[in-house]
Structures are given as C-alpha cells and as structure tokens.
Amino acid sequence: MISPRRWWLRRTLRFRITLVATTITLALLFGLALLAGKALGPLLVNSVDAELHAALDTASTTVERGRVPSAPEGIDVRVLDTAGAPVDGGEPVRLDAGDVSALKAGLPVSTEFTGEVTTKLRWLGAVVTAPDGSQRLVAVGTAMVGSEAAKTNGARWLLLVALVGALVATLATWLGVRSALRPVGRMRRSAKDLPPGGRLPLPEAHDELRALASDFNALLARQEEISERLRRFTGDAAHELRSPVASIRVQAEVAVTNPDPDLAQETLSDILEEAERLSALLDGLLALARSDAGEVPPAEPVELVTEARDAVARLPHGSPSVRVSAVVPQAWALATHAEVELVLNNLLRNACRYADSQIVVSVLASRSRVRVVVDDDGPGIAAEHRERVFDRFYRVSDDRARTSGGSGLGLAMVAEAARRRGGRVTVGESPDGGARFQVSWRRHAR
Predict the structure, then answer these.
(1) What are the phi and psi torsion angles at 137 (to 5°)?
(2) What confidence tens digit (pLDDT) does each residue in 239-279 have?
(3) How far, in Å, CA of 383 to CA of 400, rounded?
(4) What letter does residue 441 receive in the DSSP assignment?
(5) pTM, rounded to two decimals
(6) Is 137 in contact with 157 (CB distance < 8 Å)?
(7) Which long-range contacts (CB under 8 A, 24 or more apart) does 426-432 make?
(8) Cβ–Cβ contacts within 10 Å for residue 97, how many?
C-alpha cells in the first residue's frame, strides 16, 4: 500500500500546486459563505428595524401633536395606553404584558401567531405625551414575511457561489501554473539536447528561471572543468607511471640476462630506486584522489615550531644546511599532524633539491593566522611559472629543474593540504635570490 506521502510526491508539480490552491480557496470561500449565511438573518432584522425606527419617529411626532398617525405601506402603526390597550379604535394588539414593558423600555420585540400560516412580527415602541397630558405607547410593527426562506436560500446561494469560485480558481491556477512551467519544459528539452560544451539559453525575463538557467550553465562549466582536469590528470598520471615501470622492466631484463653479479647488484639498486620513486608517486596520487573525494579528517591543534624541527631532522644525510627561525616559542595551527608533516616534508625536499648551500625555515604568527616560510638560495622560480608550480605534474623547464627526481606532485599536494584547511600557499623570491614558499593556516587560540 502506497503511503500518502509517497503518493503525494509522485504527483506532478502542476497537480500539487493546483490541488493546494484549490483546497485553500475552497476552504476560504466556504468559510466566508458560512459566516455570511449566519450574518444574513441579523442583517435582515437590522434592515427591518431601520425602517421601523423611521416610521416610529414619524408616528411619535404625529401623536405628540394630537393627530392620528398614518401607517406606511407594509407597516402597522398602533397607539396604545401604557397598559397596552388600544386607544386608536383598532383591534387589540397581540402583545402580552412583557412585550408591552419591553416596548415602553425602547426594546424591540419579536412575536409570532399561528393562523393558516405562522407569521412572525417585529415591533418597536416609544412612550410619548399627548397634548392632553396623557401617556401614550406608540407601537409600529411589520410582518417578517419570507425572512426564513431568504436566510435559507441566501446561504445556499452563497455556498454555490463559493463552489463556482473554487472551480474558477482551480482552472485559473491550472492554466497559470501550466503557463509558468512552459519555459521549464523548454529548458528541460534544451538541456536534454545540449551538445558537448553547449549552454542553456537565458530567458529574457530576469526572474527565477533565468537564475536557474544561469546556475545550471555555471554547473556545466564546473563539470566540464572537472572532467578536463580529470582527463589531464589521468593522462599525466599514465605518463608519469610509464617511465618508472618501463625503467624497472628494462633494468630487470638486463639483470636477468647478464650473469655478472656486480652488474646485477648495480641494476637491482637502480630498480630499488625506481621502485621507491614509483611508490612515492602512487602515494601522492592516492593522497590527491582522497582529497578530491572530499575526505577531510577533523582539524586539531598542531604546534608548527616542533613540527618544523622534526621535519628538518628527517632530512637525509648530505642535505644543505637548514636553519629553523621561530619568532614565537610556539605557534598552533588548525590542521592535522599528517597534513603539516606532508607540507613540511615536500617543501623541504623541494628546497633541498634546488638550494645551493642554505635553507631557512621561519615560523611566524599573527592574531588569526600562522605561517611557515621556506627560503632557499637556489636559482629561484621565474615569475611566469609561479602561478602554475602548484599544478599537478607541472615542472619548471629552466635552471631550477637542473636536478631531476621530482614527480610534479609534491607542491600540488602542499597546495591542496593548505586549501582544504582554509589556508593558502604562495611562492616568491627569497632574500638570497632563491625561491620563497609561504604556507598559512588558521591559528588555534590556546
């Protein structure tokens, strides 16, 4: 059995909007019709009372002047004494003592008598003084003929009008939603038939549909950029992996075919070196793939001065001289130990590869950021290459690349590790003329 929610979600947007609008309109109109039907009776009584008040004022003035009042059409005018007995020569009035008391107090009175049909009467009265000084009760009344039928028929007509109004609202909503969604249908067909690199046409009206088309085009642009980066990354990765694999294969074939133990040992050393290079390349690719997939562990406080000294201690024997300069005794960054270690290891290995004799690692702190600055005295990086050195597999083909061995992923991993923590990495010129790399993180306030 399908649940109401699933049934509702399976309906079209046009159907849901129309049904909601119809339900609200029908409930509102029916509610108004019921309220108007209930107010119809008091409205009729108030209208009768207004006519009776006008007739009563005229009759009272006439009696005060000592004349006999005339009765307007449809209204009965009677002159009574204060006990309710007629003094105008007419028949007795069907009013009891309580009705007479209410009329003398100025209150309206409703009565009814049963003959061939039941007739309801509405009375108003006022006590006036005749010229001879006697007190007279002037009473005016009229039959409420057809009031019940008017209330019943009026309520029915109001409900019928509410129903017709709801039907008209349903039709108008259906046509309005259909007209409003027609551009969406055209947009959907256009999106279905879009060629590679195509974009949706923007509607002329600056409305929500134009914003939707613009955002969709931006999404297409991002998707194409990601796809292009993936294709380029895949091609570059395949190219980078081909070299160490081919080298390992060739050197293994040499070792197998050559019986000389010394040559075989030398070849195995070369194979080990290429295998380590291949392993580092695969580790870098795996780290970047995890980052692209959005795998970001929670940040934690990391002390950069200690991490920088530990990274220097991990450098291989024979590396250029490295000095750690810390302006503050401790600098805490919001990252992870693995990320900071990756950044420092790659920056120091890069500096060691190109430095002539000296590397300086500085740790700086401000109110909201902490920075690690790595300066070397090598050939530096030309200005035209500084924006691209953090691209994957990008290598500078100038004097700085005179030493081989890099995979083109180290600086890319540094930039990615800093970016996903809200930091950034830049490259410039060091005071010694070499390269200066700066990495910043958000500072952790302890």
Answers:
(1) -100, 110
(2) 566 666 777 777 777 777 777 777 777 777 777 777 776 77
(3) 13
(4) E
(5) 0.47
(6) no
(7) 427/381, 427/386, 427/389, 427/390, 428/386, 429/380, 430/360, 430/375, 430/376, 430/377, 430/380, 431/375, 432/358, 432/375, 432/376, 432/377
(8) 9
